[in-house]
Amino acid sequence: MGRLMRGHAIAATLWLALLLLASALPAVAGSDIVFDRPRASGVFGETVTFSTTFRSEQPPRRVELLTQVPGGEGQGVEFASVERTGDDTWEATAYRSGHIVPNTRWDYRFRVITDDGSVVGPVATHRYADERLEWQVLEGDRVNVWWHEGGDSFGRQALAIAEEALASASELLGVGEMEPIDFYIYSDTREFRQAMGPATRENVGGQAHPSIRTLFGLIEPRQIGSDWIEELITHELVHLVFHEAVDNPYQYPPRWLNEGLAVYVSRGYVEGDRLQVHGAAAGGTIIPLEGLGGNFPTRATRSGLAYAESVSAVDFFVKTYGQEQLVRLITSFADGTGLVEAFVAATGDDLAAFDEAWLESLGAEPPEPYGPREGEPGPVPDAWAA
To answer: Quick one: which of 194, 180, 39 has its CA closest to 101?
Structure first.
């Protein structure tokens, strides 16, 4: 682990040095390097190719591709390959491969560095689309719904649910105007999981990607007309509004709070979840909230329990402290408040005390923690004892 961390530190230092070096280079006069408009190609399942041609009397020392998600912070920098195509004309190309979530957009441009300095070319935008399916789209005030099966009536129903869910969640968490959101609804499990990526768990029915303002959901043909439509759409939109309400560069709230709120708003603390939680409490298999701060368990039974416990904890919070304090807890993260401070401000005590009170309300004993334990102290060397 130590070597891996040092390797990352060295790589980060090299990238920082590269960026500082590029920023320190003087700008070349605009007439010395002339760019054509940059180009990009590639849809879902294909490598994305970025390219540009430019004229420069001086051979470039290097060319870089600069990318940024619209509205995002930070900028990606990667080397481009360069080929001479004429006496003073050049073509630069860079590639992006591996899994990319559909609807990802990049603002991109190229930077050419010569002995005299650097110059940045014009900006273009590329959208990585899933073109395997024939999408229909309905644009609402703040949500655009994309679907490929179910007819116009299904699309109108999904859009109405989405607009109402977004308005309700925004009002609850005090989130103001937001940029439009795209919601893609797949009807085929295989196509949905391919779009979400190879690490997607089998029990996942939706995903929220706030960085690209895109939500994804799986609604199979047999589920059209069921309550699942409203639950799924509302659940994923709550995730996006939650992100807007807590976004900060320091610390993200625990996973159970995010998922618990999404379940609480989309379907409530239903009887099935209650039975799971109380059964785990009685059987000694409850997962304390400390164990639900990050990724949930992978086994379906434990994953389902994690979601049930999350909504149970949110329900307990609301009944104990009130909805206003829950909102205060969530929104305090946006100010950079730490986890301990956020709970103290909202409840008068820290997360450990809340966890203990929640477990006590279920009649559950705190389980023994798994994982590494502190070892017994070893013998003291004679030289140290002298």
So the answer is: 194
